[in-house]
Specification:
The protein is of the alpha+beta class. It contains 4 helices and 9 strands.
């Protein structure tokens, strides 16, 4: 094997170094032992070998990338600064190394609507926030495929009684969430909320429901819990 040549931009000028020791030294790392300011590791891109036809995916970080949350801890992006793909430059409170800021699906959703993948004070992006004031919190909107900036509570979980059957309907739009249905009747003070154990039914298009047998003179309550697994 021959010597590998490394190149990168330092203060606006392209520089080239022959061999790993020279490159490490230029970055401020020790001549031997661990680097101080750099790492040598497989970045684990989504595409191991990007090609021209899939250039939009090139340099996107995979779930196991060593580049995730490995950037400068004190880095603060400029207002409106984004990664190569137009997403916020920092997620999970610390910048990633490279062109791409890797995010979970929930972080990407928050970023798309609020520009705040991690939420936080004053962002309206927290799970319990309800910025469109339609009575449905953000995490529930996310779980049901709703828009958190528009009043669309007609898409929220709902129930309907036909005879002695109460049907509670909801969606399960996000595979990473845990969905549980709870119910209570007029004996709530004694039994508390009970988790539904009957068969969950689906139309195979993301719509789900559970049927409960009730009586006409019984108060009945049902609610959906969603949690990040």
């Amino acid at each position: 094997g021959g010597t590998v040549e490394f190149g990168f931009n330092i203060n606006g000028a392209n520089s080239y170094f022959s061999g790993l020791p020279a490159w490490r030294a230029a970055l401020g790392g020790a001549a031997v032992g661990d680097d101080v300011t750099a790492q040598v590791a497989n970045p684990n891109f989504v595409l191991a070998a990007p090609i021209v036809s899939s250039a939009e995916e090139a340099f996107k970080l995979g779930e196991t990338s060593s580049c995730k949350d490995a950037g400068e801890p004190t880095f603060t992006p400029a207002v409106g600064e984004a990664d190569y793909f137009g997403s916020s430059r920092v997620a999970s409170s610390r910048v990633d190394v490279g062109f791409h800021e890797s995010m979970s699906d929930l972080q990407s959703w928050r970023d798309a609507y609020f520009g705040a993948p991690d939420g936080g004070a004053g962002t309206s992006a927290n799970d319990s926030d309800d910025p469109d004031h339609d009575g449905v919190a953000n995490l529930m909107e996310y779980s049901q495929g709703m828009n958190p900036t528009q009043v669309d509570n007609s898409l929220a979980p709902t129930g309907q009684k036909t005879g002695n059957t109460y049907r509670y309907q909801y969606r399960k739009d996000r595979a990473e969430l845990a969905y549980k249905v709870y119910y209570a009747d007029q004996d709530y003070l004694t039994t508390g909320w009970l988790e539904a154990t009957g068969a969950e039914q689906s139309d195979q298009n993301g719509n789900y429901w559970r049927d409960f047998i009730t009586t006409n003179d019984t108060k009945f309550f049902v609610w959906l819990e969603v949690d990040v697994d």
